[in-house]
Amino acid sequence: MSEMPALTKLTRFSGCGAKLGPGVLEKALCGLSQPAYPDLLVSFEGCEDAGLYRVGPGLALVQTVDFFPPIVDDPFLFGRIAAANALSDVYAMGGRPATALALVCFPASSLGLESLRAMMEGGLDALIEAGCALLGGHSIEEAEPKLGYAVTGFVDPERAWRNNSLQSGLVLILTKPIGTGLVNMAVRANCASEEAVKASQTSMARLNKKAAELLSSFDVRACTDVTGFGLAGHAAEMAAGKSCGLRLFAREIPLLPGAAEYSAMGFVPEGTWRNKEGRLRALPRASDIPPQLLDLLFDPQTSGGLLAAVPALAAQEALGALREAGVDARIVGESGGPPGEVDIVL
Amino acid sequence: MIESRKIVDARGLACPEPVVLTKKAVEEGGFDILEVRVGSESARENVLRYAGYAGLEAALARVEGPEAIIEIRAAPSEPDPRQAH
Predict the structure, then answer these.
(1) I need a surface site. Which of A290, A302, B68, B85 has the fewest CB within 10 A?
(2) Does B78 score more than 70 pLDDT?
């Protein structure tokens, strides 16, 4: 049998970097409407991480779907990252994942079936860790491999974490470093350090389960997960509520090793430009922000961390609990400023 | 004096390929001006970014819609700044 092509060589984009830009999506979805179903609590009209649908008193379904092309060459690891990323939207709503369906695009003619098998094993590994049952899925023969999951979870709708419910006096905690998009580009260019690759892969493969469970004892007032639109892009969705905006402390934002250097070297994913196009307007005085910092802030993250807003008084205790449990969490900002604005404090 | 010119045509290539090809051409040397043709804004900015990182003088010679031509001037016979430390 001839040597099989590396997974990431089969695709133009990788991971969440393949996502359509926020500007394009807004234009395409603007004005779409459907009947006001009485049990429909959250749908695509907001910018939430997942939809909410009431199924009984104090109980709602949290539903989300996420799939993407390979971001790593190891099929098992790719499966694990794809599942961790899909599950994350449920955690970001404060929900508990229950069931999953796989979405698979696979070039059976050019990649061996053992590769598909390893992808599914990796995905299942993450789903089992989450206590989430795989019910089935659907597969398509396609030249560019893709994998992801539609995940359904449960949450008490009164306690669900929304992303635009910021109010003053909150502190923002980020539970994973940023920079997976930049590291991935450097990998594709054969310029990434071993340290950067290892840190990025470990971070992407980690579930947001523990972070979400620990945060749930600290009165989370707003939460989202940081994925394709980048930290600043998702922060902009958080700042889009009525009450106030937010500030990010640039110096406190944890970066993957190598990410800053790869930005300086010109390994900026195309998704970063799409993200800036759609969301740069949320940043006041954007022209004062060094371009390389902007690239980090808008770097599309694959299986990124949670960005959670907790009351200032609880922040240190929450941070301590997260760090003690091995979560690489940091305080990266606070609520405040005019609604809609993401102020970058240099 | 006629300046020797080398051309890298990276139009139609997704990032990071334009930077990879530019880096390779810079490392091979043998030019006074390296002309890099790119087909997207992200490729343009990334190639300019790389030139700055490598300590080379670069300028946009032409921009037409998403396409652009970047001219990178070979380093004067000083050592590569990256190798200084």
Answers:
(1) B85
(2) no
ipTM: 0.85
Chain-chain contact of A267 with B46 (C-beta, under 8 angstroms):
yes
C-alpha separations of A313 from A166, A247, A328, B17 in Å: 16, 18, 20, 48
Q: Give percent of chain B above pLDDT 90.
A: 56
CA distance, residue A72 to nearest chain B CA (Å): 15
Residue in A190, A263, A270 closest to B15 by CB:
A270
Residue A255 is given by DSSP the state B
Q: For A205, what's the count of Cα atoms within 13 Å in the CB-facing half-sphere?
A: 19
Tell me which residue of A49, A331, A282 sits closest to A172, measured CA to CA: A331
Of B14, B42, B52, the CB nearest to A12: B14
| Cβ within 8 Å of A, B 7-46 | 14-16, 19-20, 23, 40-42, 45-46
As for how many domains chain A has, the answer is 2
User: What per-residue confidence (pLDDT) applies to A31?
Assistant: 82
A325 and A211 housed in the same domain: yes
Is pLDDT of A123 > 80? yes
CATH number at residue A264: 3.90.650.10
pLDDT (average), residues A297-311: 96
Q: In terms of domains, do A193 and A155 share one? A: no
CATH class of B5-77: alpha beta
How is chain B split into domains, by residue range? 5-77
CATH code of A150's domain: 3.30.1330.10
Within a domain: A164: no
Query: Does residue A110 lie within any of the structural domains?
Result: yes
Tell me how close the Cα of B3 comes to any Cα of chain A, in angstroms.
27
**Better pLDDT: B85 or A151:** A151
Q: What domain range includes position A106?
A: 7-159
Q: Is A51 helix (H, G, I), strand (E, B) or coil?
A: strand
> Are both A129 and A201 inside the same structural domain?
no
**Are β-strands B33-38 and B5-9 bridged in parallel, bridged antiparallel, or unpaired?**
parallel
Reply yes or no on whether the pLDDT at A2 is more than 50. no
The 10s digit of each residue's pLDDT in A39-57 is: 999 887 767 789 999 999 9
Task: Identify the bridge partners of residue A331 per DSSP, sorted by sequence position.
Answer: A173
Q: Does B56 touch chain A (CB under 8 A)?
A: no
Please check whether residue A1 lies inside any domain of the structure: no
- A128, A30 contact by CB (below 8 A): no
